[in-house]
TrEMBL record:
GO CC annotations on file: cytoplasm
Source organism per UniProt: Actinocatenispora comari
Domain N-acetyltransferase intervals: 4-149
Coiled-coil region list: none
Annotated catalysed reactions: N-terminal L-alanyl-[ribosomal protein bS18] + acetyl-CoA = N-terminal N(alpha)-acetyl-L-alanyl-[ribosomal protein bS18] + CoA + H(+)
Protein's UniProt keywords contain Transferase: yes
Biological function: Acetylates the N-terminal alanine of ribosomal protein bS18.
UniProtKB keywords: Acyltransferase, Cytoplasm, Transferase
The protein, known as: [Ribosomal protein bS18]-alanine N-acetyltransferase
PROSITE patterns: GNAT (PS51186)
Subcellular location: Cytoplasm
Length: 152
């Protein structure tokens, strides 16, 4: 497979994200309205595309002069473990650097071992836990933080 192209998420891509979102997150998935809201708020969203179409997406919200939150990173199941998540994370961290963020935070399901491994490789450490954060599964979320600028 070729490296995915990272592009700006546009409103017309949202319908193509929804099947991925549904497959990965089921009843805890984001709705089209939630993605629309993120775009309307001016948050930084990207898609990863290859010859098969959209294979992943990710978003970042700069929440202060020195802080940014990764809103989501999702990779289509048939392209997981092929570098798509890393490419999206690299892009988000580069944008956080451009915006002057000195730390980046995220929330991840406590049972999402592949995502946890990726984030730890990039220097994220656990700083908190949100009990029962993901509903309706009542799964805890780990809050993770990465200090400093620069990518992996």
């Amino acid at each position: 497979m070729t490296e995915p192209q990272i592009e700006r998420l546009r409103w017309w891509h949202i319908r193509d994200l929804l099947p991925i979102e549904d497959d990965l997150f089921g009843p805890e998935r984001w709705s089209a309205a939630m993605f629309w809201s993120e775009l309307a708020a001016g948050h930084y969203y990207r898609i990863a595309r290859d010859a098969t179409g959209i294979v992943g997406y990710a978003g970042l919200a700069a929440t202060g002069p020195d802080e940014a939150w990764i809103q989501n990173i999702a990779v289509r199941r048939d392209r997981q473990r092929a570098g798509v998540g890393r490419a999206l994370l690299d892009d988000l961290l580069a944008e956080a650097d451009r915006r002057g963020a000195t730390h980046v935070l995220l929330e991840v399901a406590v049972d999402n071992d592949p995502a946890l491994a990726l984030y730890r490789r990039y220097g994220f450490v656990e700083v908190g836990r949100r009990r029962g954060y993901y509903q309706p599964s009542n799964t805890d979320a780990l809050v993770m933080r990465r200090e400093g600028s620069g990518r992996e």
